[in-house]
């Protein structure tokens, strides 16, 4: 039985998980020599597999680095950390890749470029991907978008690829210090922003308390003014009522006197008339 058929049978028996690389890592534990080489070929061809560091760490794959199949180990390293341009530079001493492998490595190259720039000019892509035709380049990018390798859009007017998202690639051990420094700088920036936000919160709360006290002061002053106006209104009403009563009483007294005078006058007039008749 050939190595390829054996790997296919073992792959069918293996328990697949959500990680498409997992089944290859399981198979690598028992694969040696030619079987490990065949496993490398299949993983580089397999759709949906874009990270390879876990496979590189298995003992059977590490053994390839120092044996007659070292070129396959180097090829796997380029797919894990390198670009299509690097492959072309080492093409003469590396195994020839299939069209499927070529397309995958070109997609991974776009991902690597996405970590350096969010708008990648077509000229850069054509150079890095060793392509001459813009139409072929756009077809390759569209395939990467539909495969969820990258998210973005083609800006044909400005001849560039605008990126919103790209999958992650394997991280080389030598890059860990740089990543750690970047994350620390990000944490420091977050701390600075947090301190600034807390300061603004304290300031905002102080302004709020000041405004509330000012509002309470104004409301108290308004209440006092209303109380004073009410008191003044009551005093004015009482004074007006007193004046009206006094005026009413004075008028009644004069009316009585007029009535009495009128009666006396009438009596006198009557008496005069009476004596005249006699």
UniProtKB/TrEMBL annotation:
Listed Basic and acidic residues bias regions: 243-259
One Pfam family named in its UniProt record: CSN7_HB_subdom
Region (Disordered): 229-278
GO annotations of cellular component type: COP9 signalosome; cytoplasm
Keywords associated with the record: Cytoplasm, Nucleus, Signalosome
Chief place of localization: cytoplasm
Compartments, as annotated in UniProt: Cytoplasm; Nucleus
Transmembrane segments: none
A Gene Ontology BP annotation from the UniProt entry: COP9 signalosome assembly
Family: Belongs to the CSN7/EIF3M family. CSN7 subfamily.
Protein name: PCI domain-containing protein
Organism in which the protein naturally occurs: Megalurothrips usitatus
